[in-house]
Amino acid sequence: MKNSVESREEDANVSSSFRRLPDEIILQIFNKLIDLKTLCFCHLISKHFSSIVLQIEAISFTAPLLNPHISDKNTVSDVSPSQPFLSAHRFLSKFKGVKFLWIELPSSSHRDIDDRLLFRWKAKFCSRMKSFIFLSPHSIFDKDGFCINGNGEEEEEEEDELRNDMLNQKLVISFQCFRDAMVWHSILLYLVKDLPKLEKVSITDLGRRGKLSLSGEKLIEVKEWVHSASEAVMTHLELPTKISNGYIPVLKLPVSGYVMKGIHFCVMKMKDLGDGNDGVMNNEDASADKEEAAYTEAVMEILEKHTT
């Protein structure tokens, strides 16, 4: 009992000492935390801390996987890709001064597929989703001919039926990724509307296979749009008016020197797309690694030479 009392007194003394710090110092400490869950705990300590926490400028949020005990046999239709984020949105919307926001969400397409399967998706969007591309190579080789990802062995001759089954599987995954992209885009719109000082926001999946981000002039354009658009317009979903898919045995990438083999791809475009073939590309982060840069180059090659 004595030890318990002493422990509580010690905790109270530490808390009291911390609270005597100037608010500016406490805010600097909170700005180092950035994790939304940790900030939530700090927010609950006291009204004083609550008012300081809500002044931070950068937040990172990684959503937990939905019910890890669910069998892999369940289909992706059991889960909405926005569900892990909804519980956090109400708290997040209180941070009216936040400028930088990074969010990682589970992807609906990742739960029932082999983690070794290679694929990426990219999208062109602003206030509306404009276009989307999915590509899935069998393997990737660097400029020296070394396999850096996937199956390094040459693809064996496959019967048409087996190849078609693989194509159908990847088409299903591509539509699941497109569903994620549409949901994430909707989330971005509401974040921009709720957080007036936002300067950069990014949403990706836990496997970093897809990403949507807004900053700079594009973010300013979206801010103007969301504050003038009605709820019905904001929630309206644009469906693809043109879908093309195909298979490329070998794709050589002249800029990076990489080679991708056995690529399945799917391109979806919405109506009124006036951007030409670069309509499925947003500006990529300068920090993208070599493999990610190779995917970006592959997208451009496919759009220029393998789609109509």
UniProtKB/TrEMBL annotation:
Recorded superkingdom: Eukaryota
Gene3D superfamilies to which the protein is assigned, alphabetical: 1.20.1280.50
Domain F-box: 19-54
Matches recorded under InterPro entries: AUF1-like, F-box-like_dom_sf, F-box_dom
First and last residue of the signal peptide: none
Protein name per the record: F-box domain-containing protein
Organism: Lactuca virosa
Source organism phylogeny: Eukaryota, Viridiplantae, Streptophyta, Embryophyta, Tracheophyta
